[in-house]
Structures are given as C-alpha cells and as structure tokens.
Amino acid sequence: MQRRQFISFMASLALWPIEARAQAPAAPDQAGPPDQAGQAQPDQPADQSAAAGDNSIGQVSTVQGSATVTRANAAPIALKASDPIYKNDELMTAANATLGVTFDDETTFNLTGNSRIVVDDYVYQQGASGNVGAFSVTQGTVAFVASEVAKTGNMTITTPTATLGIRGTTGVVDVPVNAATGGEAKIKLYPDADGRVGHIDVFDRQGGRLGALTQGSSAFQIQRGAGGRFAAVPFRIPPQEAARDRGVVQRLFASHNIGRRMTIQRRQLRQRNLRQPNNLRQPSNLRRQNGPQQQNRNPNLRQQPNRNPNFRQNGGPGQTPPNNDQNGQQRRGFRERLRNLNPFNRRRDDQNPR
Fold this sequence. Notes:
Blueprint: H1 2-23, H2 48-52, E1 58-64, E2 67-70, E3 77-78, E4 84-85, E5 90-93, E6 98-103, E7 108-111, E8 116-123, E9 131-145, H3 148-152, E10 153-158, E11 163-166, E12 170-175, E13 185-190, E14 200-203, E15 209-213, E16 218-224, E17 230-234, H4 239-290, H5 292-295, H6 304-307, E18 311-312, E19 316-317, H7 324-341, H8 343-351
Parallel strand pairs: 9-10
Antiparallel strand pairs: 1-4, 1-6, 2-3, 2-5, 5-8, 6-7, 7-9, 8-9, 9-12, 10-11, 11-14, 12-13, 13-16, 14-15, 16-17, 18-19
C-alpha cells in the first residue's frame, strides 16, 4: 500500500514543475501590451485611409475677412487657411476681403473683395502631360499665377464674355457684375515675380480667336461689337488702376509663396502615406523575427530569474521575490512527504533505531 502511494506521489511530483511554470508570472520581457511584447500587430496606418480618400486639388493659402465655399447645393461654408479645395467648388469673398488659393501644381489665385470663381475642372499629375485646369471668373477682380498645368497641359479661364488660354504667366481679370449684359471685362498681362512675361490667348465664347497678350502691363477690354459679337480692344492701363493692380499682384505673389510651401508639404505627406504600409509592415516583420518565436526557442530563459533566490523581479538583485518562501516551503514539504512514504527509508530507520 505504501509503495502504491509512493509511486502515485512520484507521478504527481514529476508534474509539479510543469504546473509551477504554468502558474508562474510572465518574465519581464513578456509583460506589457502585445505591441511591446514583440508580438506582430496588424498594420493599421492611421493616415492611409485619409490619403486614399483625399481627392482635394488644392488648399487655402491666405484669407483675410470673410470668404466662403459652396459645394453642390449645400449652404456656403466659411474658409480658413489650409482648408482643402475640391473640383466644382464655388469660391466667394465678401466686401474688403481677400482669398488666396493654391492648387497642387502651385497655380495660385488671389480673389479681392466681392469676387467669385468656380473650379470647373482640374487634373494634375506631376511629370505627366495632358494636365487640365479650367476656371470661371464670374465676378470681381481675380489675379493669378499659372504654373505646371499651363506648361504641361491646358489651362483656361472663362469669363461671361471671353475665354483665356493661359500659357504660364501672371495676369489680372476684372469682371463687372453686369459683364454678361454689356459690362466691359478687362484682361491684363503682368510680368512674373522673376521678370518673365508669359502669354495669354483670348477667344470668344464660341472659340473664335480675338487676340493675344504678349507684353508686360498690356491689356484687352472685351467690348460688344456689331451683330452682338465681342472684340478684344487693346487699351492703356490708367496710372490709378495700374497702382491698384500692383497691390493686387503683390498680394498674389505673397499668397503664392505661402501656398507653394504648403503644396510641397502636401506632396511630401502624400508620398509618405503611399509608402506607409510597407514601412509599417517592416517593423511587424522585425517583431515577428525577434519576438516570441525566437524567445521560445530556449524555454529555460523565462525560468532563469527564478534560479537566483536573491533576484528581485521588479528592481534587480538584492531582494527575494515574494513567492520564493512559499516555493521553498512547498519543496521542503514534498521532500518530507517523500521520506515518509518511501518504504526503504523506513527499513533503514528500523535497522538503525535512534
């Protein structure tokens, strides 16, 4: 009977280290959230979904006073700096307000007070040809600096009485409120910030060519002629109007410089977002290589701190872990029970009475 108890006790004793390991607390390098423990996490780039859904084509570079955007049939929304701009947006300024908008190719528009412009179409891909930019100035004074779209594709500005073909330049468009019913719109060509002078072709709304501006500070006035047809009549810009235009163009260049820096940042952010999934998977792969798979190759590593009774799990050596005394008592109790149940030890005790 004692031998059977001894054999069963030995079997339970053989399983005791396994149960102890199962109940032992995790080693310090396994503690903490899963991402800190070296476990692979699913790639969840925070900006990827935003980048994938970002179909904006520009942003507000500067705004002073009240400016709004109208999208579809929704109510107008107040604009502030860095707000995105989308295709088919209608931009408006209140009296004494100004609005600067820079598009992805760095083309910039500056609207003065009581101006309205519509983004009819815009397609731009860096380094590609066939880019498109189509804008409608329906009211007010609007200055513009054309950039890559005008150089690599087709950029047009439409007024109620004429259409402008822009070939990379700086210009000012004046559209009175009654331009469609007889008001005289004005188209002016000014030198760029570096002194270069671009080119503006002028057509009527049916596509007939009316003329071209090729010299700095030159202008056309769109007048209604015989048979209701419009003509582009050259005129000399008055000194007072030229002084006002200089202020408008200076604000345009300042807005263009701000918008250009913002556009570069937008471009860099989009490029990082496109590369982000691969970058996020890289650390995950490294964590899989250096994580639990490698640590589990040597299961004794997790038991190493328990080999030293003076090891302090939460602060280093010098203090006995809280459960070491209990483990020692359990071991001594098992040994005592082992001696009592071992029939051979009893025989020796009988032969050598104390």
